[in-house]
Structure formats: C-alpha cells, structure tokens
Write a structure and sequence with these properties.
The chain is mostly helical and about 70 residues long. The chain has a single domain, classed as lambda repressor-like DNA-binding domains (434 Repressor (Amino-terminal Domain), Orthogonal Bundle). It contains 4 helices and no strands. Helix 2 packs across helix 3 (about 35-40). The longest helix has 14 residues, at about 5-15. It holds the Pfam family HTH_3.
C-alpha cells in the first residue's frame, strides 16, 4: 500500500465485501463505530494496534517493508 488513504480504502472495500456495517466491524474488533469511521476516512489518531485488529478481523495483514 502506498499511503494511509490506500489502507483506509482497502479496509472500507473489504468491509463492504463482507457486507458488514461499520458498527458490526467495530463490535468484532472490540472498538467503537467512530474509530472504524476514522480509520476508513484516514482521519483521527487511531493507534496502530487498533488498526491492525480491524484489519485482522477482515482477514488482512499489515506489513512493514523497507
């Protein structure tokens, strides 16, 4: 992924593919609907652990490469 906005778009796209609402995803990831909304819009100051958990729930893996 090239940017945080790409990550945000991917999370939103995959959530919709699974036909989950933001509220359902938040419940599964143990976070708030507001946090999921912030992640999907690339706003807010959500911690990497929360983003990683949302991604994990969707079957995505965050990876850091040099």
């Amino acid at each position: 992924m090239e940017s945080l906005l790409d990550l945000a778009r991917t999370i939103r796209t995959v959530r919709k593919q699974y036909r989950l609402t933001q509220e359902q995803l938040a419940d599964l990831a143990g976070t708030s609907t507001r946090t999921v909304r912030d992640i999907e819009h690339g706003t807010g100051s959500t911690g990497i652990g929360t983003v990683a958990e949302v991604a994990r729930v969707l079957g995505l893996v965050l990876r850091v490469e040099p």
